[in-house]
Amino acid sequence: MKVEMSEFLMQKRQVVKKLVHILSKDFKYVSVLGTDSHGKKYVVKRKGVNISDSFWNERGFIVRVFNGIGYSEYSFNKLDEGDINQVALNIKNRVNEQISKLRNKNNITKYQIVEDEKVNNSFVGEVDILPKNFSDKDIIDKLTTVKDKALSISDLLLDAQITFQQVQVSKIFISNNKDLYQSYIWSEGYITVLARKNNNTRFNYNVFSGLKGAELLDEMDDKINDTVNVVIKLLDAKPVEPGTYDVICSPDVSGLIAHEAFGHGVEMDMLVKNRAKAAEYMNKPVASKLVTMRDGANSAKQVSSYLFDDEGVLGTDTVVIENGILKRGLSDTLSALRLNIKPTGNGKRFSFERKAYARMTNTFFVGGHDKFDDMVASIKRGYLLMCPSSGMEDPKNWGIQCMVNYGIEIIDGKLTENFVSPVVLTGYVPDLLKSISMVSGDVGIEGSGACGKGYKEWVKVSSGGPYIKAKVRLG
């Protein structure tokens, strides 16, 4: 079923166009991004139910103008026909005030005018179940059924928390040459279980996501038993003995590595600021020849897929690493102007009140030709790493640290029942990526998380990849 475009934004399109026309008399470039995103989050656990507004709800506009030196922005959330002239005057006065202060300062970065190609386009997504056709009660009933099934599996479970969130994102982007709009729904779900035995408490989770509606809830049933069975095994898990091991990373763990290792490291606003080592390695080997990595709104169909980014640039499919060679980075419009390259459609804002940064979208390693069983058979002693929880990296020095909920020991080419938890994966990014010796053909991409940058500014992203075999340090 087709997603319905925001009535609020569609009603404001002509008003926004008039504002752009008025401002264009004083500024050589003018654009307006309008956003209307709304959704709900549902949580069911043993002792309660909670329904709340989504963290991602927002409604408002941001104007960007070329001020003769660089770009000024002005955000607001009210725009009516009778307000246009006053809003335009407020913007003009604010920009003139900024420019008068900048003219007396040294070392001010100067920008070229954005190449505003003529584009008229739109995207309206499709889901099986629209929010209006599935009530809060329907959703809570579904989540309660999943919770009850999980709790019935073992008396060792303290709790099972089942979470579902769906958000409809609608945006317009209007300049003198562009008239764009898009509307789509993304959803995410979590099964999180907590167990205790002999004062030892462990957790496990499974995640679900996609450009889907409430039909995503049906996917949870297949993962209930697996989620609970693993947490019971984790009650007997031992800490990993620190050292360097051959490991197989599951698709979600390889996705975390892709995100942390060469996602943040190639966001090109970091290159502009000389905060990323990747600038020294363009068109040079940074990984095994088996490694190809992509990012882009058009690279996959997941929560960070869209027609255009928050600067009106159409989404792309960017090859970041190709057969081990670092090819290019991910750019917002302003970093692209500074570096004299074409933007990749990665300019994303936390909200209409925040600036645009170069941000990841759908980031993943491309699949290879190896079979999972052959990968396991190739390891004398190592681990299958599963269930990532968090990660961080240093773009300047290429250090990486990934937290993984558990690993399963591999001995003499066979998976055992020996679990280790928690696991910390660390290393120097090129060493880790160059050690990749096998890559499966199976690729999984999920988008249940978010990525932070700047001052607590979050955006939805997805990541993933195939199973990969690598040599890493564990602790």
From TrEMBL:
The residues the entry assigns to the signal sequence are none
* Source organism, top-level taxon: Bacteria
Q: Which residues form the Metalloprotease TldD/E C-terminal domain?
A: 242-469
Under the heading SUPFAM superfamilies, the entry gives: Putative modulator of DNA gyrase, PmbA/TldD
Q: State the Pfam families in the record.
A: PmbA_TldD_3rd
Family indicated by similarity: Belongs to the peptidase U62 family.
Put simply, this protein is called TldD/PmbA family protein
